[in-house]
């Protein structure tokens, strides 16, 4: 028998989360962001759930080619654009929309001879200071692009630095001031702006993390009550039980000391599976559907849980590390990271299953905030 850990992907959750985005940004089209292999879920596994999206956004040319080969005919956006001349040929062959964020990328397009003009998203650096033309250089870049035979439609886009904790009006103001005279579709909103900043919705929204049921802030309480369904469940089983006397300790570093007699479950899941090593005692874990907590240090292949709230649990009991009973953010936040990272970092050694088409999992499961 293989080790009892596995991940399960729920395409139907993604389909419902896209519907929720549509109900939230009613007049916007939706780029479904599936970079990093669909935030670790696997592009091929979740592909059928994307049908309601208007476009797919990602970074890797390989991934873009994969979605075309899966049969996607609607737009595909390369969020970082092209890196060398050869990429223009691929963008041309596969009809990719490319982000253009610097003059060097305009140079590549200018010297290219695509069979048909390539649609671009011209990126403004409105304050994030990662990629993009500064507002004062933007309309010049737009004029240059619009004069190129190799460039088709020009969309206007920007990205927010802190849509998750409030202040984005200054970036929207920068964007609006610098684009006032320019035609073209607008696209600004990531997941956080979809949820909390209707002013940013515009023509196209670009949600990523909420499609997978994770919180854009990294904090589960910020999405409590929203119908965002987890698209990944990481489960395992209890493979050992220890009964501790008061004063005894658990695991490496003797990091946890029992203050009373305790039953401890040993779970087949460790940091080599993608569970964060820095998860502190108290991080929630569900055993047979009952929420309890991590105790002791996470080791490479195992971790330990307090079985006090689930006295009937024993060897073989089912364990949910994250999913519909424990949001991935509830594991990430106390570990000093965000759900995005945990989903992307699921280890290769974890076997992954996919729900059969049409199978239903609970819509808004009772997750504590
Ligand atoms: C990753 C990314 C998104 C999606 O961000 P989320 O916070 O996951 O919604 C949107 N736009 C750009 C340019 C991105 O790189």
TrEMBL record:
The UniProt record lists the keyword Isomerase: yes
The positions annotated for binding substrate are: 130, 300
Q: Which GO terms describe its molecular function?
A: alanine racemase activity; pyridoxal phosphate binding
Entry's Gene Ontology BP terms:
D-alanine biosynthetic process
Q: Which GO terms describe its cellular component?
A: cytosol
Family the UniProt entry places it in: Belongs to the alanine racemase family.
Organism field: Caballeronia concitans
Q: Where is the Alanine racemase C-terminal domain?
A: 231-355
Query: Which SMART domains does the entry link to?
Result: Ala_racemase_C
**InterPro entries linked to this entry:** Ala_racemase, Ala_racemase/Decarboxylase_C, Ala_racemase_C, Ala_racemase_N, Ala_racemase_pyridoxalP-BS, PLP-binding_barrel
Q: State the pathway, as annotated in the record.
A: Amino-acid biosynthesis; D-alanine biosynthesis; D-alanine from L-alanine: step 1/1
Question: Which reaction(s) are listed as its catalytic activity?
Answer: L-alanine = D-alanine
Give the record's keywords alphabetically. Answer: Isomerase, Pyridoxal phosphate
Q: Which residues form the signal peptide?
A: none
Name of the molecule in the record? Alanine racemase
Pfam families xrefs: Ala_racemase_C, Ala_racemase_N
The active site lies at: 35 (proton acceptor), 252 (proton acceptor)
């Amino acid at each position: 028998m293989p080790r009892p850990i596995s991940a399960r992907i729920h395409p139907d959750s993604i389909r419902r989360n896209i519907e929720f985005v549509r109900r939230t940004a009613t007049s916007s089209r939706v780029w479904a962001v599936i970079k990093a292999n669909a935030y670790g879920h696997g592009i091929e596994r979740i592909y059928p759930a994307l049908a309601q999206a208007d476009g797919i956004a990602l970074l890797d040319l390989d991934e873009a080619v994969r979605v075309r080969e899966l049969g996607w005919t609607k737009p595909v956006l390369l969020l970082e654009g092209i890196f060398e001349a050869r990429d223009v040929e691929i963008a041309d062959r596969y009809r990719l929309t490319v982000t253009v964020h610097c003059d060097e990328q305009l140079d590549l397009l200018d010297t290219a001879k695509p069979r048909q003009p390539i649609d671009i998203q011209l990126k403004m650096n409105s304050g994030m200071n990662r990629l993009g033309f500064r507002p004062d250089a933007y309309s010049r870049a737009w004029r240059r692009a619009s004069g190129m035979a190799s460039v088709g439609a020009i969309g206007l886009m920007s990205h927010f630095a802190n849509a998750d904790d409030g202040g984005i009006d200054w970036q929207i103001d920068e964007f609006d001031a610098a684009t006032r005279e320019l035609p073209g579709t607008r696209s600004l909103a990531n997941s956080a702006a979809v949820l909390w900043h209707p002013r940013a919705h515009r023509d196209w929204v670009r949600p990523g993390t909420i499609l997978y049921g994770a919180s854009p802030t990294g904090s589960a309480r910020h999405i409590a009550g929203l119908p965002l369904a987890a698209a990944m469940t990481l489960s395992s089983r209890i493979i050992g039980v220890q009964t501790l006397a008061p004063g005894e300790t658990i695991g490496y570093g003797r990091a946890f000391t029992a203050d009373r007699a305790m039953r401890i479950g040993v779970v087949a899941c460790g940091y080599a599976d993608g569970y964060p090593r820095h998860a502190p005692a108290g991080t929630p874990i569900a055993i047979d559907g009952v929420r309890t907590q991590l105790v002791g240090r996470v080791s490479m292949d195992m971790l330990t849980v307090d079985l006090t709230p689930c006295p009937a649990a024993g060897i073989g009991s089912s364990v949910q590390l994250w999913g519909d009973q424990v949001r991935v953010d509830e594991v990430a936040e106390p570990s000093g990271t965000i759900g995005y990272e945990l989903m992307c970092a699921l280890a290769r050694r974890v076997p992954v299953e996919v729900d059969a088409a049409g199978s239903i999992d609970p819509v808004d499961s009772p997750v504590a905030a």
